[in-house]
Amino acid sequence: MTLPFPQISPVTIEIANFLIVNLTNLLNTEQMWTIMNDDTTTSKDITTKFMLHIDIPICLLNDDLPSNQTFLQQQTSATIILINDTDSQKLHLIVKKLMRFEMYNSRVETVFVITSKVEDQNFLSDYLKIIWSYGIIRYLVAFFDGNIKSFSYNPFRNEIREVLTHGEKPEFPNYLTNLEGYTLKVAMFMQWPRVQRRKGKLIGPDVMLLENLARLLNASLSIVETSKSDSYSGAYRSVLSSQSDLCFVKYFFVYGEFPNAEYTDPYELNYVDVYVPNARPLPTYLTVFMVFNSLKWITIGLTFLTVLVSFKILSTKSDRNKIWSYCDIFMIMLCLTLGIPLKRLDKYPRVLKILLLPYIVMIFIFVVDFRSHLLNRFQFTSYQKGITTLQELAESGIPLYTFVNKTTSIPKELKEQYHIYPNLEFVSSRKTNGTRFAFALPFLWRRNIPMKPGTRPLEYHSIHETLMKGFGIYMFRKNSPYVEKFNQLMVNIRQFGLSSSKAIIGVSDPHFNNKNSTNDEHRKLTMSEVLSVFFILTIGLLLSTITFIFEVYMQK
């Protein structure tokens, strides 16, 4: 296609043909275009003729030029910048002006077209570096040098590449797929338990996640450690001053907390768990009666009485010569219950054998069940009923301490009990005075009540209900070229399970979000724990001795 532009120079005609023919083939014609020029006469002429000869919706970013007022979709609109000069200072001003337009997206296709004839290409290196420094990724610089030429820039190799020769279809680069070993600088401070120091090196789930991201980008990782006291403010200042490329923000920060910053989409970490004081353990001798629930004990007692009374009635009717006392019948029932064999059972009347047979079978089942559960009681400690829900915590009235300053997410029942402290030292300070309290901590593994003797006794355990969800986002300076790529990588990490964070691998149920692990260390049994076991054994020995004495008495 050749346009009749007799009043315009041949260079301008060549540029116009380039825009209409080559860029139409390059860009999706269903997308809307944005055109911005530097207000020179040549650029205005090209813009006007361009709008007349192409049917794609166009929006002009210059206020003094006529516009068709087409609504521009920011995410899909390609942009053409017309510049009449190769001066780098002028390019700075034009790109800054471009960045001020809300409708412009620095991560879509952008073509910088120099509308004047270029005598040499010495300016090109500075031009390409300046554009990249503003976070524009997918861009080309085109100009007329006898022929239309187009160039892109790989910042990680510091390499200029010609991507368009005359008559060929151009392509936009996307160098963020391979950073060629580029060192990503990440602002981070030591924040237990997600980031901690071991042997002079920062480790933890957050560091592992960053290492996975760097590996996917073929980049190396350099941690710019900021002061822990500065928290995210120090990391934010490091990013804005270009000392770091990004920082990792968690603990429920939301968009807008820091100006001039961009964030990736939040992904879910684990949760803020509420830790409540353990209930008092039950005495060991009481746990014997807790082997069965009340319904089983009532069933056993009623069955025992029913068989006892039935035995008395049937024995009287079946054999009037022998009178069975309640004491004799009780001892028979007790021997059967304890598993002691009865002598001369074959001489009992048939009706009594039929009565005792179902009782023997039932008692055998209950005895096996009792003994197996009794051994379990010897191994694990039982506790009184403690706090298990947030509602019970609210009804208890004990204070709830945390350093998560997000009161809007707290249930209204806990508002008066919710106290915010600046760091974790409130736990140790409150323990010293012996007061009962609860605390909320994010990003920890759940801890159950330690049930097994010989393990480290924990004073607090987490309940199943969670106080609030936790999220993590990566923060960049505004117009950073890495934001969109990191969003894409986080999707890949979530899909393939490359992170140790539970929410990253898709677990959404707070009740099963964390491992129910106590992480207790084994130690020797204390004297009180040993004596409690011997107490139960002594009681069993006494009962067996009494039963044996009664058995000897009955044989006389």
UniProtKB/TrEMBL annotation:
It comes from Henosepilachna vigintioctopunctata. The keyword Cell membrane applies. It comes from the Eukaryota. The chain crosses the membrane at residues 285-311, 323-342, 348-368, 530-550. It is found in: Cell membrane. The lineage of its organism: Eukaryota, Metazoa, Ecdysozoa, Arthropoda, Hexapoda. PANTHER family: IONOTROPIC RECEPTOR 20A-RELATED, IONOTROPIC RECEPTOR 68A, ISOFORM A. It is a multi-pass membrane protein. This is Ionotropic receptor. The keyword Phosphoprotein does not apply. Keywords: Cell membrane, Glycoprotein, Membrane, Receptor, Transmembrane, Transmembrane helix. One of its GO terms (cellular component) is plasma membrane. Its main location: membrane.
